């Protein structure tokens, strides 16, 4: 806290003027300087502000529990993680599930399957839907993170978080989506309802895959920042915002299939704006998360 | 109709001779009038009156009440329209108006007025005109405001009638014109008096015309000579005099008097206002004041002589009984005059005259007295005369003469005002003379009267005489009276000259006589101020008398005529009684009969209504005038401007004279017969002319009476003022008396004050003397006191000295005493010392003895000591030294202890701080520990996850292996079936070799069995665990593995059997197996061992390695969390069996526990 006072006194005003992220990096550095990192604070920070990309991996790893809060043990734990990764990879190689030709994403999948004990008897077995989700997420993460060990661990933890922490709340999201869409634009909702497209919206793509494959990674990162830091509701707002952004087009479309199709392949160019708006919307509706500590 | 008839009856009854009937009928009429509002009754009454000239009807008509006035006026207006009834209507109107009914103000609005004016303008009958003019004149003061509308009518009438007087249109008899002229003259006065400005302007405009110039010269101008300049001509204006506000303040009689004021005609004029009198008073007063000393008598006569006439019964008694007394009674007025001259002056002429004289007094005034100043004397002179005149004929004669005489004497005096006083003086003597004349006569007539009767009592005396005469002559025939009258008139010229001569001596005689009397009465009280006390007393005495005199102005003549001199109380009977009583009034009717030649006298009612005496007086005077006229008196040279009234008067007088002459020629009793006897029936036109004349005269008379009434009203008011003034005077006198008394008191007080002052001064002197004496005493005493004081001071100083001495002596005594004491003390001390010294000596002696003894003992002891002393001292010293040392030691010890204590305390403190630090440290350590724990947990979690991964890997591997085994076994079974037959011989040989190593082999087999069992049981456990964790997929895996166990076991058993049997084929597989895992990792090692184990089923030595492998596995599992770093180094060296066995035992136990645990969990 004492370091807070060393912060630039102008920091309060930057945001008002519209410069975002000027002071965030600094404050994040201050947060990261703490020995025994304060997970709570990091969570709050990442919910409130977009993370600088250079610290994103670190923060994610910490938030996802890949790295312990103590700096000392980082190296060792990281070594363990790496060894584990190597072992699993080796094992897969041994059992001839993967080869050098196998795409990295599939390697990750197999590793995850192995670790979760779901490795099929044969690599030729058809993939399960959850494996498809994993692949989509892994593909997205692979784009974000360079190091394959980190990448694997982030994917793994992320998926685990989705499966464990959000297992209860994820099925609720379509309902919430409907509610917020009603609040924001009831006409659109009624249109969707008339087209009976509401139930057929790409909820899997949005909520189970967390927009992986839907949004470009640069934008996706910012959404996932929030997801990683513990809020899956942001997904709803992103979805709402997508609909709002492409409202005219959606309104023009009349059949559920077309809508779904369109939504599954939304144009990538406006994704940044969508995400920004979605975050604003999220803040608006759910309030700006305040650091509880 | 019945009513009408009833009214007719009643009307006829009105004239009944019975008084009671008349009264009743009158009452009935009045009742009717009050109840009935219709005009009929009034009309009937008027008609009846016009018809019959009935007096009661007239009476009723004149007293009509408010609602009937309109009817009356209308009726009269109607009558006025007819020429025949015009004259009676006018006369009725005159009657009505003269009584001044309460509705008189309505006259101005009534149509009667315009018709009257019209009549006056149009009519040609002189009688009607005269009557109308008189009515108009009477009416004018009642309706002054209405002048505005009719003013020009009035003026026109005046212009017409004035021209009539000159032009005599038609054949109007001269005699009528005289009447007309007189009435026009009155109208002139009235108009001029009321509307001077308008009237003058009218005159100016009217007579500026040439045709009227003659009229002006002949008629109007002479009239104008008889008026003064009206003050309104100066101050007023045409509009102002028509202003209703001006008239509102004035009553009718005020207006009349106002008009009379501006007249210079003695018959008309009146002076009563203070302002008109005051110059006379002021002019007369100094003279009188100067005169008083000489003739107070005259003054009394002037001031109250006439007034004092009332108490004549008493005064006369006084006069008769004690003639010497009167001066006393007279003195008060005189003194009052002296003390209050102005008041007396105010009183004297007009007021007294007004009180005593009847209203007709101007009539008495001779026409020669035209001068305004002479009027005063005329009135004053007249006041006495009427008293005498009525009954006694003698007085009037001298009066006339005196009157004649006076103007002659006065006329020159009129020219110069300064001679006024002289004139008054001369007039006053004249008066006195007048009074003295009857007085003398009375004296002469009354033989019983002795001495002189005072002038003041004269009128009363005279009246008394007259009444006496009257009462005596009451019974006599009127013829006798007329005879007497004629005698007197004929004889009146005779006393003229002798009176003049007799007058002055009397006067002169009287003058000195009066003061003399006065002197005798007042005993030389020339200066009233010298002795005021008697004056006061007399004033007090007379105070009540004077008002009494003032209150009865008209009574004396009445009483005198009506009653005997029985008492003045009886004289206060009402006028009506006097009217009704057969009094001298009877005389004129008789004469009238004479005049009217038996005709019912038309003015009969006149005398009844009027005061009998005045009427008689008037008539007598007229007759006198007429007589004079008839005689054609040479001495009567008329003044150039004779007023028409005078002319009329003279006419009447002449007529009367002629008549009396005629009468005198006739025998009295046959008077009525005379006419017929004399000249047969008189000519009708003469009779008519005479009647008309009579009527005119009557009218004139009525007008004059009206004026008189107005005057009477005025007089009453003035009387009230006079009474008030008298009361005030009395009050003043009383106040003055009081003042005097108070002054007297003040004087007395002053005297007493002086006395008191004197006494006071005497007392003061005495007191001063006393004070001085006392002062001297005090001084002496003070001196004494000082001496005493000095003495006492001396004594005190002495006393002081003595005291000092005593004190000194006492001091000395004290000193001596102290000395004595001291010496005593010394003595006792010395004695004590002595005794002490004695005892000391004794002790000394004793001590000396002891000393000696002790010295001896000492010597003895010394001797003894010298022998023993050396040893003991060393020991003691040693002991002491030891003790000292010990003490020091102890002290140092204590010191040490203290130091130690300090240090220990310090130490404790240090330790405590240390402890705190330690606690802190401990806390920190704990924190740190926590931190570290957390860190370790993190690491541990990573490691566990790694371990988990490893387990998964091994599972995968095991699965793979099992899979491979499964495939291998399938392949091997097929091969066996093929090779069984071909290699039966080889199997037998191999069985022999096996038997050789049977024992150890079985052991290892057992071992292997157990270990295999163990190894087999192990994999499914984590598989089951993972199944429970992983869900359906995991369990499927578990199920897959478990059914494979028995075959694999069996296969393992079989394979161990079968592999040993077919070693060649098996060896190729282990190589591949062995080549598979990389030797660097633990898994690789294990895999190699596993494969070696498999291959050992063919070779015996492998069993040991397998067991050792399993051992290492077990140990590794046990040791794994502890040290992982060592594990890669461990597996090389084959371990001895005992630990292996131990570990197997441990494994068993663990296994059991684990399975058991699993079961409990499951």
TrEMBL record, chain A:
Which residues are in the Rab-GAP TBC domain?
50-231
Q: Which PROSITE patterns match?
A: TBC_RABGAP
Q: Which domain of life is it from?
A: Eukaryota
Q: Name one GO molecular function term.
A: GTPase activator activity
What are the UniProt keywords, alphabetically? Answer: Cytoplasm, Cytoplasmic vesicle, GTPase activation, Lysosome, Membrane
| Quaternary context | Component of the TSC-TBC complex (also named Rhebulator complex), composed of 2 molecules of TSC1, 2 molecules of TSC2 and 1 molecule of TBC1D7. Interacts with TSC1 (via C-terminal half of the coiled-coil domain).
Q: What's the protein name?
A: TBC1 domain family member 7
| Gene source species | Enhydra lutris kenyoni (northern sea otter)
UniProtKB/TrEMBL annotation, chain B:
InterPro entries documented for this protein: ARM-type_fold, Hamartin
* Residue spans of biased composition, Polar residues class: 520-539, 1065-1079
Question: Bias category Gly residues: which stretches?
Answer: 1023-1039
Q: What start-end ranges are recorded for coiled-coil regions in this protein?
A: 771-819
Q: Which UniProt keywords apply?
A: Coiled coil
Residue ranges of the region described as Disordered: 412-449, 512-572, 1005-1079, 1112-1162
GO-annotated cellular components: TSC1-TSC2 complex
Kindly give the Pfam families that the UniProt entry links to this protein: Hamartin
Q: Cite the record's Basic and acidic residues compositional bias ranges.
A: 1113-1123, 1151-1162
Q: What's one GO BP annotation on this UniProt entry?
A: regulation of cell cycle
Q: What is this protein called?
A: Hamartin isoform X1
What species is given as this protein's source? Enhydra lutris kenyoni
Q: What is the lineage of its organism?
A: Eukaryota, Metazoa, Chordata, Craniata, Vertebrata
């Amino acid at each position: 806290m004492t370091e807070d006072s060393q912060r630039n006194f102008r920091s309060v005003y930057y945001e008002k003027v519209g410069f975002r992220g000027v002071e965030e990096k600094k404050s994040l550095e201050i947060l990261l300087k703490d020995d025994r990192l304060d997970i709570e604070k990091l969570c709050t920070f990442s919910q409130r502000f977009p993370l600088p990309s250079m610290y994103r991996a670190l923060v994610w790893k910490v938030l996802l529990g890949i790295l312990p809060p103590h700096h000392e043990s980082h190296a060792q734990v990281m070594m363990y993680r790496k060894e584990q990764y190597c072992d699993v990879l080796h094992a897969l190689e041994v059992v001839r599930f993967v080869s050098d030709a196998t795409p990295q994403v599939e390697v990750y999948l197999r590793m995850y399957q192995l670790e979760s004990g779901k490795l099929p008897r044969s690599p030729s077995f058809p993939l399960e839907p959850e494996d498809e989700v994993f692949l989509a997420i892994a593909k997205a993460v692979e784009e974000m993170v360079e190091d394959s060990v980190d990448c694997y661990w982030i994917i793994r933890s992320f998926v685990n978080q989705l499966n464990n922490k959000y297992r209860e709340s994820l099925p609720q999201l379509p309902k919430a989506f409907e509610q917020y869409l009603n609040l924001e634009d009831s006409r659109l909702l009624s249109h969707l309802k008339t087209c009976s497209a509401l139930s057929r919206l790409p909820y899997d793509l949005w909520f189970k895959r967390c927009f992986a494959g839907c949004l470009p990674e640069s934008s996706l990162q910012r959404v996932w920042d929030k997801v990683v830091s513990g809020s899956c509701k942001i997904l709803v707002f992103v979805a709402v915002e997508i609909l709002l952004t492409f409202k005219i087009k959606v309104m023009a479309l009349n059949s559920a299939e077309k809508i779904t199709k369109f939504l599954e392949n939304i144009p990538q160019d406006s994704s940044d704006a969508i995400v920004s708006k979605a975050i604003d919307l999220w803040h608006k509706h759910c309030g700006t998360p305040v650091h509880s500590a | 109709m019945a009513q009408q008839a009833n009214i007719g009856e009643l009307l006829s009854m009105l004239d009944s001779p019975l008084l009671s009937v008349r009264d009743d009928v009158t009452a009935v009429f009045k009742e009717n009038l009050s109840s009935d509002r219709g005009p009929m009754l009034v009309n009937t009454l008027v008609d009846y009156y016009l018809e019959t000239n009935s007096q009661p009807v007239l009476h009723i008509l004149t007293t009509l009440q408010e609602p009937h006035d309109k009817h009356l006026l209308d009726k009269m207006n109607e009558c006025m329209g007819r020429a025949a009834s015009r004259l009676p209507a006018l006369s009725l109107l005159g009657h009505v108006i003269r009584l001044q009914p309460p509705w008189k103000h309505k006259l101005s609005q009534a149509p009667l007025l315009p018709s009257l004016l019209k009549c006056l303008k149009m009519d040609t009958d002189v009688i009607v005109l005269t009557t109308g003019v008189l009515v108009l004149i009477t009416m004018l003061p009642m309706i002054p405001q209405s002048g505005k509308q009719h003013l020009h009518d009035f003026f026109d009438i005046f212009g017409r009638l004035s021209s009539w007087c000159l032009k005599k249109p038609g054949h109007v008899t001269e005699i009528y014109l005289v009447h007309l002229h007189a009435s026009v003259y009155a109208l002139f006065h009235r108009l001029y008096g009321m509307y001077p400005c308008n009237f003058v302007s009218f005159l100016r405009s009217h007579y500026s015309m040439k045709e009227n110039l003659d009229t002006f010269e002949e008629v109007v101008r002479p009239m104008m000579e008889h008026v003064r300049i009206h003050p309104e001509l100066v101050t007023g204006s045409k509009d102002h005099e028509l202003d209703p506000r001006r008239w509102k303040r004035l009553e009718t009689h005020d207006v009349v008097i106002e008009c009379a004021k501006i007249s210079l005609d003695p018959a008309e004029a009146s002076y009563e206002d203070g302002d008109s009198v005051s110059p006379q008073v002021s002019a007369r007063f100094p003279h009188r004041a100067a005169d008083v000393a000489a003739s107070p008598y005259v003054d009394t006569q002037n001031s109250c002589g006439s007034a004092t006439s009332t108490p004549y019964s008493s005064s006369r008694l006084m006069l008769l009984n004690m003639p010497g007394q009167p001066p006393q009674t007279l003195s008060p007025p005189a003194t009052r005059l002296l003390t209050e001259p102005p008041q007396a002056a105010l009183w004297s002429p007009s007021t007294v005259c007004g009180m005593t004289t009847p209203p007709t007094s101007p009539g008495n005034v001779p026409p020669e007295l035209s001068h305004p100043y002479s009027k005063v004397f005329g009135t004053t002179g007249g006041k006495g005369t009427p008293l005498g005149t009525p009954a006694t004929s003698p007085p009037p004669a001298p009066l006339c003469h005196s009157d004649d005489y006076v103007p002659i004497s006065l006329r020159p005096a009129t020219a110069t005002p300064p001679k006024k006083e002289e004139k008054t003086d001369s007039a006053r003597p004249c008066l006195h003379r007048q009074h003295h004349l009857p007085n003398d006569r009375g004296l002469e007539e009354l033989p019983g009267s002795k001495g002189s009767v005072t002038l003041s009592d004269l009128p009363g005396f005279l009246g008394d005489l007259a009444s006496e005469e009257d009462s005596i002559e009451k019974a006599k025939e009127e013829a006798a009276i007329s005879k007497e009258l004629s005698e007197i008139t004929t004889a009146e010229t005779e006393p003229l000259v002798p009176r003049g001569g007799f007058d002055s001596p009397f006067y002169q005689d009287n003058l000195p006589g009066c003061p003399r009397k006065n002197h005798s009465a007042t005993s030389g009280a020339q200066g009233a101020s010298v002795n005021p006390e008697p004056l006061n007393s007399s004033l007090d005495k007379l105070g009540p008398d004077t008002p009494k005199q003032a209150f009865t102005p008209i009574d004396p003549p009445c009483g005198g005529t009506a009653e005997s001199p029985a008492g003045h109380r009886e004289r206060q009977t009402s006028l009506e009684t006097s009217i009704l009583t057969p009094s001298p009034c009877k005389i004129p009717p008789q004469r009238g009969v004479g005049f009217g030649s038996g005709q019912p006298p038309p003015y009969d009612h006149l005398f009844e209504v009027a005061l009998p005496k005045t009427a008689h007086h008037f008539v007598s005077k007229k007759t006198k005038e007429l007589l004079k006229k008839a005689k054609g008196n040479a001495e009567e040279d008329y003044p150039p401007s004779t007023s028409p009234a005078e002319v009329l008067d003279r006419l009447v007088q002449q007529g009367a004279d002629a008549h009396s002459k005629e009468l005198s020629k006739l025998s009295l009793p046959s008077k009525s017969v005379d006419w017929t006897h004399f000249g047969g029936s008189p000519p009708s036109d003469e009779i008519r002319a005479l009647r008309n004349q009579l009527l005119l005269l009557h009218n004139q008379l009525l007008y004059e009476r009206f004026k008189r009434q107005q005057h009477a009203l005025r007089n009453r008011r003035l009387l009230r003022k006079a009474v008030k003034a008298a009361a005030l005077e009395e009050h003043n006198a009383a106040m003055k008396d009081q003042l005097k008394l108070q002054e007297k008191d003040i004087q007395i007080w002053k005297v007493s004050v002086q006395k008191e002052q004197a006494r006071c001064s005497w007392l003061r002197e005495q007191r001063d003397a006393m004070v001085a004496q006392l002062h001297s005493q005090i001084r002496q005493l003070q001196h004494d006191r000082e001496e005493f004081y000095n003495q006492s001071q001396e004594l005190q100083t002495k006393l002081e000295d003595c005291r000092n001495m005593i004190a000194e002596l006492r001091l000395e005594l004290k000193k001596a005493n102290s000395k004595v004491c001291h010496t005593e003390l010394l003595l006792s001390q010395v004695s004590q010392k002595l005794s002490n010294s004695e005892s000391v000596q004794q002790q000394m002696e004793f001590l000396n003895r002891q000393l000696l003894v002790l010295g001896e003992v000492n010597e003895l002891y010394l001797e003894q000591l010298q022998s023993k002393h050396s040893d003991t001292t060393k020991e003691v010293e040693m002991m002491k030294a030891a003790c000292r040392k010990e003490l020091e030691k102890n002290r140092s010890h204590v010191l040490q202890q203290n130091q130690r204590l300090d240090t220990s305390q310090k130490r404790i403190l240090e330790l405590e701080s240390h402890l705190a630090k330690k606690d802190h440290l401990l806390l920190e350590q704990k924190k740190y520990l926590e931190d570290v724990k957390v860190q370790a947990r993190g690491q541990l979690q990573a490691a566990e996850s790694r371990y988990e991964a490893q387990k998964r890997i091994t599972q995968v591997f095991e699965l793979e292996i099992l899979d491979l085994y499964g495939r291998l076994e399938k392949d091997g079974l097929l091969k066996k079936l093929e090779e069984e037959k071909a290699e039966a011989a080889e199997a037998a040989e191999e069985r022999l070799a096996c038997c050789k190593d049977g024992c150890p082999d079985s052991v290892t087999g057992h071992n292997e069995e157990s270990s295999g069992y163990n190894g087999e049981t192990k994999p499914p456990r984590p598989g089951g665990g993972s199944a429970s964790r992983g869900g359906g997929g995991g369990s499927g895996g578990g199920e897959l593995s478990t059914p494979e166990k028995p075959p694999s076991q069996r296969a393992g058993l079989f394979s161990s059997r079968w592999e040993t049997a077919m070693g060649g084929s098996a060896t190729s597989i282990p190589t591949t197996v062995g080549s598979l895992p990389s030797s660097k990792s633990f898994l690789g090692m294990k895999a190699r061992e596993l494969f070696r184990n498999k291959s050992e089923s063919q070779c015996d030595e492998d069993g040991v390695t397998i067991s050792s492998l399993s051992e290492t596995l077990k140990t590794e599992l046990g040791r794994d969390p502890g040290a992982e770093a060592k594990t890669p180094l461990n597996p090389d060296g084959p371990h001895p069996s005992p630990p292996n066995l131990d570990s197997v035992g441990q494994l068993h136990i663990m296994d059991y526990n684990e399975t058991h645990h699993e079961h409990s969990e499951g």
